[in-house]
Amino acid sequence: EPEVTQTPSHQVTQMGQEVILRCVPISNHLYFYWYRQILGQKVEFLVSFYNNEISEKSEIFDDQFSVERPDGSNFTLKIRSTKLEDSAMYFCASSGPGMADTQYFGPGTRLTVL
Amino acid sequence: QQQVKQSPQSLIVQKGGISIINCAYENTAFDYFPWYQQFPGKGPALLIAIRPDVSEKKEGRFTISFNKSAKQFSLHIMDSQPGDSATYFCAVGGRSYNTDKLIFGTGTRLQVFP
């Protein structure tokens, strides 16, 4: 069964450093998302991406965040200058043509900012 | 402010019992109501979802009951098993609201004891 994959599974970085989280969505999907989950809390929407542009972003997704689909398979989330409060699980999700509401989540990247 | 209120926060059920988790939402424009199951260290996995044109949907041991007028929906797990022990999140979404994002509830930690 097709699945969303994410790398790395765990990223440790120093405050102020840039990180790039990578995702490979399900191959025929057209809608891509990033969510985050601070330990023990609910899953929060960050950004949605369709047709090579951001379709919606939350107030969390400030100028320090950016997303990119550099090729036909990868979808990345970049945090330019990490803060302690960016420590969280980051989940990539994708959904397919005609089923934009059914989002399938990857296993997540645990980001730890020291 | 968009909110999804989920209860209870935690639930302990004996094997074979019925687990019931409830969610309430505010905005009547939402038209997609999924439940996600999350095991520790994993991403949320779609369990079952419903749209407002039906009041109930059943898949195996899992049933969603939907009350459009009350703006509430619930997940029933029949014959609960220890393997069902996980965190369950309700969510709301829908393209009719001109958004792809899912808004998650705060989660319910279910423990099923043998």
How is the topology of this model organized?
The complex is a heterodimer of chains A (about 110) and B (about 110).
Chain A lengths: L4 E3 L2 E4 L5 E6 L6 E7 L5 E8 L2 E5 L7 E4 L6 E5 L8 E8 L8 E2 L3 E5 L1
Parallel strand pairs in A: 2-11
Antiparallel strand pairs in A: 1-3, 3-8, 4-5, 4-9, 5-6, 7-8, 9-10, 9-11
Chain B lengths: L3 E4 L2 E5 L4 E7 L7 E6 L6 E6 L5 E4 L2 E6 L4 E6 L8 E7 L10 E2 L3 E6 L1
Parallel strand pairs in B: 2-11
Antiparallel strand pairs in B: 1-3, 3-8, 4-5, 4-9, 6-7, 7-8, 9-10, 9-11
How would you describe what is shown here?
The complex is a heterodimer of chains A (114) and B (114). Helices cover 0% and strands 50% of the residues of chain A. By secondary structure, chain A is mainly beta. Chain A is globular, with a radius of gyration of 13 Å. In chain B, the strands form 2 sheets. In chain B, strands 2, 4, 5, 9, 10 and 11 form a 6-stranded mixed beta sheet that branches. A 5-stranded antiparallel beta sheet of chain B has the order 1-3-8-7-6, with no helix packed on it. In chain B, strand 4 and strand 5 form a beta hairpin. The chains are: A mainly beta (114), B mainly beta (114). The interface between A and B is medium-sized, with 25 and 24 residues.
Give the SSE string of chain A: EEEEEEEEEEE
Global geometry of chain A:
globular
- Tally of individual helices of chain A: 0
What's the gyration radius of chain B in Å? 14 Å
Spell out the key features of this protein:
heterodimer, A: 114 residues, mainly beta, seven-stranded mixed β-sheet, four-stranded antiparallel β-sheet, 11 strands, globular, B: mainly beta
Nutshell version of this structure?
The complex is a heterodimer of chains A (114) and B (114). By secondary structure, chain A is mostly beta strands.
